[in-house]
């Protein structure tokens, strides 16, 4: 059945790519009228998708059977056939599957009222290159060819990158590819060496064999503006390559967890990657290493690390005798969707107390920084899956 939209609050907007827009409930700053049914329909350019973030405060009911905030990610503003329903007090972040998106705010005649506020932006899909990976793809994983131990397979993780001190050809931190121009790492990493000595390495597996690797000069980097070097809170950075990174089956972007923005990933198995030291103050590994650990809840993490402040913008991991170590910082914490099999960067390796101790490691939670990431990398697009 088609939505019975009130004509006084039926809005349409054509979006300019990259521009930010805001909209609030009809009647703002006061509550929306009871018994109202309002719609917002937006459209971006053909090569864009729409990124929506809203804070809603409306009555909470079972299955949102009363007042409901509805979002169609295909932009079906007539029937809302794919609509997701929300109610209560919460913040939601969603990405459209096309270049259109529709929002409906339905209120019953028995409503006590409520408010909401949204921001919206159309962002470009990734550009294609002469050596593309599959069009608009991310988070793929190669068939494994394990050499031994905790070694990864050859090019098993195409999105893995490294920050290199090119004056001594040494890995200083891990990183992960977001698109053809940007990689993500920890905020404490880009300051280890001067920018003229730092480069981005992609396609790496065995660092003693450089035939398959490609090195790119760094042209800029952005540390999170609220990064605290003492607490390592907001330990996230974006590094820009001077030239386009050539994608192939062996080199390509990780998926960002837009559709899992509300997940905390507690007790999920995740994978840490890096060429760092294999034990505390030990030698670094030539071959990219992987270790599977479990996400812990933040209250347990705080209990185990009483001298450190653990925030909701951090994600802790632990497994007995397993951990990231020195020079693994900045590398991704990867979660694999069990249905799509895509890999998502849900964390950035930040710090631990030693390596593989009986305490969790602390990582930066990527879902807390999606807006900030998009604002930086959107000029070269990214794939939303």
From TrEMBL:
<dbReference type="InterPro" id="IPR001314">
    <property type="entry name" value="Peptidase_S1A"/>
</dbReference>
<keyword id="KW-0720">Serine protease</keyword>
<dbReference type="GO" id="GO:0006508">
    <property type="term" value="P:proteolysis"/>
</dbReference>
<dbReference type="GO" id="GO:0005576">
    <property type="term" value="C:extracellular region"/>
</dbReference>
<dbReference type="InterPro" id="IPR000859">
    <property type="entry name" value="CUB_dom"/>
</dbReference>
<keyword id="KW-1015">Disulfide bond</keyword>
<dbReference type="InterPro" id="IPR018114">
    <property type="entry name" value="TRYPSIN_HIS"/>
</dbReference>
<feature type="domain" description="CUB">
    <location>
        <begin position="9"/>
        <end position="123"/>
    </location>
</feature>
<dbReference type="InterPro" id="IPR009003">
    <property type="entry name" value="Peptidase_S1_PA"/>
</dbReference>
<comment type="similarity">
    <text>Belongs to the peptidase S1 family. CLIP subfamily.</text>
</comment>
<dbReference type="InterPro" id="IPR043504">
    <property type="entry name" value="Peptidase_S1_PA_chymotrypsin"/>
</dbReference>
<keyword id="KW-0645">Protease</keyword>
<protein>
    <submittedName>
        <fullName>Venom serine protease-like</fullName>
    </submittedName>
</protein>
<feature type="domain" description="Peptidase S1">
    <location>
        <begin position="146"/>
        <end position="378"/>
    </location>
</feature>
<dbReference type="InterPro" id="IPR035914">
    <property type="entry name" value="Sperma_CUB_dom_sf"/>
</dbReference>
<dbReference type="GO" id="GO:0004252">
    <property type="term" value="F:serine-type endopeptidase activity"/>
</dbReference>
<dbReference type="InterPro" id="IPR051487">
    <property type="entry name" value="Ser/Thr_Proteases_Immune/Dev"/>
</dbReference>
<keyword id="KW-0378">Hydrolase</keyword>
<dbReference type="InterPro" id="IPR001254">
    <property type="entry name" value="Trypsin_dom"/>
</dbReference>
<dbReference type="Pfam" id="PF00089">
    <property type="entry name" value="Trypsin"/>
</dbReference>
<keyword id="KW-0964">Secreted</keyword>
């Amino acid at each position: 059945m088609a939505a019975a939209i009130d004509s006084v609050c039926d809005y349409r907007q054509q979006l300019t790519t990259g521009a930010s827009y805001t909209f609030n409930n009809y009647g703002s700053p006061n509550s929306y009228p009871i018994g109202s049914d309002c719609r917002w329909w937006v459209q971006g350019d053909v090569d864009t998708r729409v990124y929506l973030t809203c804070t809603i405060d409306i009555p909470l009911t079972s299955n949102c059977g009363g007042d409901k905030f509805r979002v169609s990610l295909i932009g079906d503003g007539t029937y809302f056939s794919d609509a997701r329903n929300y109610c209560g007090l919460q913040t939601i972040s969603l990405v459209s599957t096309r270049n259109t998106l529709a929002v409906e705010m339905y209120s019953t005649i028995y409503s006590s009222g409520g408010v909401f506020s949204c921001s919206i932006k159309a962002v470009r899909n990734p550009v294609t290159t002469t050596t593309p990976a599959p069009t608009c793809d991310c988070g793929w994983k190669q068939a494994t060819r394990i050499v031994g131990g905790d070694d990864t397979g050859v090019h098993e993780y195409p999105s893995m990158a490294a920050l290199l001190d090119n004056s001594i050809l040494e890995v200083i931190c891990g990183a992960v590819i977001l698109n053809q121009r940007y990689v993500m790492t920890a905020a404490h990493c880009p300051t280890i060496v001067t920018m003229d000595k730092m480069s981005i390495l992609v396609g790496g597996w065995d660092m003693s064999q450089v035939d398959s690797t490609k090195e790119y000069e760094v042209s800029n980097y952005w540390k999170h503006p609220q990064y605290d070097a003492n607490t390592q809170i907001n330990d996230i950075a974006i590094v820009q390559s001077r030239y386009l990174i050539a994608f192939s089956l062996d080199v390509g972007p990780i998926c960002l967890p837009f559709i899992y923005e509300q997940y905390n990933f507690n007790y999920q198995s995740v994978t840490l990657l890096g060429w760092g030291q294999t034990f505390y103050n030990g030698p670094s590994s030539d071959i990219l290493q992987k270790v599977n650990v479990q996400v812990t809840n933040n209250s347990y993490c705080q209990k185990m690390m009483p001298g450190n402040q653990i925030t909701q913008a951090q994600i802790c991991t632990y497994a007995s005798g397993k951990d990231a170590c020195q020079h693994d910082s900045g590398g991704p914490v990867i979660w694999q969707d069990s249905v799509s099999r895509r890999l998502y960067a849900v964390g950035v390796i930040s710090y631990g107390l030693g390596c593989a101790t009986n305490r969790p490691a602390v990582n930066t939670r990527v879902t807390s920084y999606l807006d900030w990431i998009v604002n930086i990398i959107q000029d070269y697009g990214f794939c939303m899956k």
